[in-house]
Design goal:
By secondary structure, the chain is of the alpha/beta class. The protein is built from eight helices and ten strands.
Length: 256
C-alpha cells in the first residue's frame, strides 16, 4: 500500500511539474503575441512589397512563431525609419526591433535572440571616383553619408569620424541618389541592402564598389530590456529548430 502511495505521489508530482512547464510555455507564447514588432525597410532582410511584409528575417520570424504556438498576431509588423525604431526599442516596453547588427556598443542596450544571418557593413563608392581606403584613418578624408544610428553610422564614428562631418539622412533611397550624384563620396551601409537599393533606384550596381569593410558580424532580433528571459528563450529555441530543420536555408535561397 505504501509503495502504491509513493508511486502515486511520484506520478502526481511529475504531472504537476509537467503542467507548470506547459502553462509556462503557453504564457511565454502569449507574451510573444503581446510584443510590438518593428522594423525598417532593409531588404532582403525585412521590407514591404504590395502591402505584405517580406524578407529573410520576416520569414524566419513567421516560421519560428508558428513552432512556438504563438498566434498570427505576432506577425503584424510596423515599419518606421531606423532612428525612430531604434529609440522606440530602447524606450520600450515590449518592443522587438530587427534586423539589428549585434555590436559591443549595443550589447547592453538590448536583449538578443538569434542570430538571423551574417552581415557585412562596408563603405561603398562610385568606381569612377577610384577611392582607395587602406586604413580606417583614410575614411575621414572623404565625405560620408549614413543613416542616423544605423550600424554604418556608428562604425564610421568609431573609426574616428566626427558625427558633424557625416551627412545624416533617414532613408537608404536618399543615400543612393546622393552617392550617384557625388553629393557624398562614401556610403556606410550593409552590403546586400545597399546593392538592393541601388538596383531598385534604377542604377547599375557595376558602377559601384565596396572599398572598405567596416565590420563583419551577425543580424539579430533586438528586444527591449523589460522583456523576460522565458519569452526570449522560447523564440530562441524556435529559431534554432527552424535552422536545424533546413527550412532556413530554403528561406534564404528565396532572396539571395
Amino acid at each position: 500500500m505504501r509503495v502504491n502511495m509513493k508511486a502515486s505521489l511520484r506520478i502526481y508530482f511529475a504531472a504537476l511539474i509537467a503542467s507548470f512547464i506547459f502553462i509556462s510555455a503557453l504564457s511565454s507564447a502569449g507574451e510573444l503575441d503581446q510584443l510590438t514588432y518593428i522594423t525598417e525597410s532593409y531588404p532582403p532582410y525585412n521590407f514591404e512589397s504590395e502591402g505584405e511584409s517580406k524578407g529573410i528575417a520576416v520569414d524566419l520570424l513567421m516560421a519560428a512563431t508558428k513552432i512556438s504556438t504563438a498566434s498570427s498576431s505576432v506577425l503584424s509588423l510596423q515599419f518606421f525609419p531606423w532612428p525612430r525604431a531604434y529609440k522606440m526599442t530602447q524606450d520600450g516596453p515590449n518592443v522587438v526591433l530587427f534586423s539589428t547588427t549585434r555590436t559591443k556598443q549595443r550589447e547592453k542596450i538590448f536583449n538578443w535572440v538569434g542570430p538571423i544571418t551574417s552581415t557585412r557593413i562596408v563603405l561603398i563608392a562610385k568606381k569612377s571616383n577610384a577611392i582607395i581606403i587602406n586604413h580606417s584613418s583614410d575614411i575621414a578624408k572623404h565625405l560620408i553619408g549614413a543613416i542616423t544610428d544605423d550600424i554604418g553610422d556608428q562604425l564610421v564614428q568609431e573609426a574616428g569620424v566626427k558625427s558633424s562631418a557625416i551627412e545624416h539622412v533617414s532613408t537608404a533611397k536618399s543615400l543612393v541618389k546622393m552617392l550617384a550624384t557625388d553629393r557624398i563620396k562614401l556610403w556606410a551601409y550593409e552590403e546586400n541592402v545597399a546593392r538592393w537599393f541601388i538596383k531598385k533606384s534604377g542604377f547599375d550596381n557595376n558602377q559601384f564598389e565596396s572599398v572598405y569593410t567596416l565590420k563583419e558580424g551577425d543580424l539579430y532580433f533586438a528586444f527591449s530590456k523589460d522583456i523576460n528571459k522565458k519569452t526570449l528563450d522560447l523564440l530562441q529555441d524556435s529559431i534554432n529548430e527552424v535552422k536545424a530543420s533546413g527550412e532556413f536555408s530554403a528561406i534564404k535561397a528565396n532572396y539571395l
